[in-house]
Every structure is written in structure tokens, then in C-alpha cells.
Amino acid sequence: MSGWAGANCRDTGMSLGRPTATHDENRAVARTNIQSILVNQTKFIGDVILTSVLTRHLRATYPKATIALLCAAGLERFVVAQGIADMAIPFGRRRMRGTTYERVSELYRVTSTIRRQKFDLTIDLSDSKTSRILTRLINAPIRIGFDPPENPLRFWETQPANVFAATYGHGGEHYLYRYLSPLAALGIELADPVPSLQPIEACQVEARELLARNNVAKGSFIAVHAGASFEGRCWQPERFASVIGEIYQRSGLTAVIVGGPDEAPIAQKVLDAATSPVVSLVGKASLEVLAALLSEAFMFLGNESGPMHLAAAVKTPVVGLFGLTSPDIWGPLGVPSRTLRPSMPCQCIAKGICKEDETGGVYCVQRLPVADVARSALELIDVLRRNPIAV
């Protein structure tokens, strides 16, 4: 949801000539007097929500340390308001895709801002060429990176980290465990791997006022998100409308469409095709208010996206729609859920448009039939109504 905001050394246990830190060395790191921590996570909303589990454990281990998050510009307020970090430093992803001058200017601005903080520890979750440049320029005493990087380094590149985390994590297949892998590198035991965010009281008041103005009561609606960061992850709007209609007819639950301002066109297509009551709050809620709105919903229905992870984090049951990405790797966590994905390998419905092996550039999700999504949603509604304590 964009509007809110060389050689592979894995088998050798080495990273470009640097030995992976031993268990004893990692335990020594954990005992170091760390007063300030920077986590580099400049990806999307969903990634930030998964990262909140890492920062929660860091806060418990180093209660006196200041935790900062380098995040995509536009997410700073959400990060601080939700307690994911004590401070947020914006990173201009768009500027980094601009001219050479814009890229250099953004790197200089971010590096200057960070160096003034004098961080004791940096953790590079972004794991990119740019993030490694930043790690080197910041040059904190303790620098955690992945060994090896997710994408192998070119022969001329070096790994600036001096403490290494396992690239794919230890706890499970889900991508969350990649973001938690630095805990093991620090000798920190994983206590609770489930993302959990609490709606802010003032935002909850605002969310309830928004719902009241549209005659929608708490628990009487499903929150629907028809957008995503990439077009290829969006299920067809008319199919959303069909499922919304069947849910209303069978369960009495109305639909409230949510999303950022740039998702108004796709939301309008859902509204145009709807045959049942639908309320649109697209573009009317900040991310903090969205978290509160989602906590008021009976259930969430939407594409693989940041709002799906946000719904799960505020303990709202989820029906998630997936394409090339596996739900085992990016599915909702910690709540009753249903995830749907078409059979693979995909029988391509967008030949000449799809970008093979690019999760945001393929349209596999559009092969999901209305009947399958409606059945899964209604089954979950029935389970939740028969066993409310499951929520």
C-alpha cells in the first residue's frame, strides 16, 4: 500500500574472508553495554510490522537503550506511535530511484543524520547494496548483517558487518524468522514470535467516530483491502464485490473498504460492482487509525499486503489472497485465518505482462475463483461465531 507510506559462502560458514561469530563471541556481544541501536528496515509496511517482534525483544534485553528504525519515508509517525521504535529516521526510497544527484543527496542526508546519533549497534535487515553502504559509512562498533546476503555479493563488494546472522533464520520457514535471526547472533532467546500491536487510544476514538458516521458498529463488518503495493498482487475488484455480496447475504456482515489515498480508483471499482451495502474509508485514515479500524472489524479480507499483516497484529482474523508468494512464507500470524493461493506452477493468465519469479510482477492471484474465496470466508465466519474465544 504505497500511499501510506560474488561467490556464495553459505556452505563454508564464511563471508568474504570474515569468520562467522562463534556462540561465545555472540554471548559477549549480548553483554556489551549497548545504549543505542539502529535497525535498518526500509521495505514495506508488512516488513516493518514483522520487524516489530525484533525490536520488542531488543527493548526487553536492552531496556535502557534507545532503539531507532531507519524506515521508508512516510512510516515514521506510525513506527513511533505504535512503539515499534523510540525514533524513526526516514529513508527516501523514491529519491534512491531518481537521478545520481538525488541518490547521492539522500545517502548523504541519511548518513549525516545517523552518524550524529553515534549508534553502538546497527542491524541491517534490508540486506541490500545501499544498506551495506550505509552500514559501512555509519561504522558502528557492532554491525550485524546476514551471512551470506540473500543476494550473493559481487566479487568487488565486501560485507561491512562484523557479527553475522543466519540468512534464513532458525525458527521456521516464514520470513519473520529471517528478521528475528539477529537475535541469535546477539545471544538473545526468542520468547514470543507473534507480531502484536495495540491500537492507540486516541486513534481508536477516531476510528469509532468514522464508523459511527457511516452507521457501522464494532464487530458488524469485514474490513476489505482490495489494493496492494504491486498491481500483480491485486485480486479483481469485481470479484471482491461478489464475495462481499455473498458474505452479506449469508452472514449479515457489511463491508468497509480501507486503503491509502492512491487506492481510491480500485476501491471505486469495488463500489461500482457491489450489490450489497459497502462503506469506503479509503484515504480517510492514517496508518495509526487504520490499526484501530482493523481492530474493530469482525474479520479482514484482502490481498497479501501490509494491511493484512496489520490486521493480524491487532488480533483481527484474516482471509488472505496470495499469488506467486507462498502463505507459508508471508502469511498472517497469530490469529485464526484462511489463506488462498492458486495451484502452482501457474497457468499464466497474463502472458507477456508477468515477470517470472517476481512476486509483485505476476498476476497469479487473479486465478482465484470467487466461489473458493467466499467459501473460505464463510467457513471462518462460522468458526468464529461458534467459538468467539478463538478471536
Notes on the structure:
The chain is α/β, with parallel strands linked by helices. It has two domains: 10-185, Glycogen Phosphorylase B (Rossmann fold); 201-390, Rossmann fold, CATH 3.40.50. 37% of the residues lie in helices and 15% in strands. The chain is built from 13 helices and 14 strands. It has helices at 23-31, 45-61, 76-81, 100-115, 129-138, 176-185, 201-213, 237-251, 264-273, 287-296, 306-313, 327-330, 370-386; strands at 14-15, 18-19, 36-40, 66-72, 87-91, 121-124, 142-147, 163-166, 221-225, 254-257, 278-280, 299-303, 318-321, 337-340. The strands form three sheets. It has a six-stranded parallel sheet with strand order 5-4-3-6-7-8, sandwiched between helices. Helix 8 (237-251) crosses helix 9 (264-273). The protein is globular. It starts with 13 loop residues before the first strand and ends in a 5-residue tail after the last helix. Pfam families: Glyco_transf_9. This is Glycosyl transferase family 9. Keywords: Glycosyltransferase, Transferase. One of its GO terms (cellular component) is cytosol. InterPro entries: Glyco_trans_9, LPS_LOS_Heptosyltrfase.
